[in-house]
Request: fold
Amino acid sequence: MPSISMPIIKAISSLLLLLLSLPLPAAPQRIISLTPHLTEQLFAIGAGAQVVAVDDASDWPAEARRLPKVANFQSINLERLLALKPDLVVLWASGSEHRLAQLQALQIPTLIVRSAHLTDLPANLQQLGQASGHADSAAALAKQLEQQLLALHQQYQQQRPLRLLFQLWTPPLTTVAKGSWIQEAIELCGGDNPFADSPTPYPQISQEAVLQADPVLILTPQEASQLALWQRWPNLSAVRRQQLVRINPDRLQRLTPRTLDGIRELCEVIDKARHAQ
Reply:
């Protein structure tokens, strides 16, 4: 093996000393979040003090409601966003192609976060942690949530399936299916969704299809009054058994640490209906 000459060794040592002396990249101090669940995730990992603006729908935690609003679900107020001089903008990959193009055209640093499954939550937290300078706290929270998901799975995986309808919205009457994390939560809790195999994650369905499926439980994150339409069919199992339930609208619809609370609530509601049969 050829020996390494002393000049080369000295050059390598000098390069290493130079690299060690360079300052580490500073964590962004002016973050703008354009998606509610990412806003909540940033606060959860300890980066809330760095968030200087959010979108109109970011309302949790309370501190987020007091921040300037620079976007809604349709558009970004680019003038206001630029005035806040962000050094990082975070947004959800789903449906954000136009927003991303606008930000990139202005050479604004952006972070795209992909959230489609329950198992994405720990990874999202760690991605935001790395980007914001809170890698350790994000990793700890991610591990904690992974353990909680596993515990819930172990608790409910052997339970008898319960046929249900998750009424995401009406009108039009919309439910969930495979490809949505709400459906994954339903499966984790032992729920049997007759519309799970629909071709889209959030299919529109007919009242006739629901009557034919005859769910034992109907849940909604909407106002409880939106369940009243089913009272017209007193022979529907969920109506006959008085299993029309409203659940917290944010916990399952937004993929955040609070989602675990939403899954627990969902599992408890399903289990209560299961034992009420």
Observations:
- The domain at 159-275 is CATH 3.40.50.1980 (Rossmann fold).
- The beta strands are 31-33, 51-55, 69-71, 88-92, 110-113, 162-166, 191-192, 217-220, 244-246.
- The chain has twelve helices and nine strands.
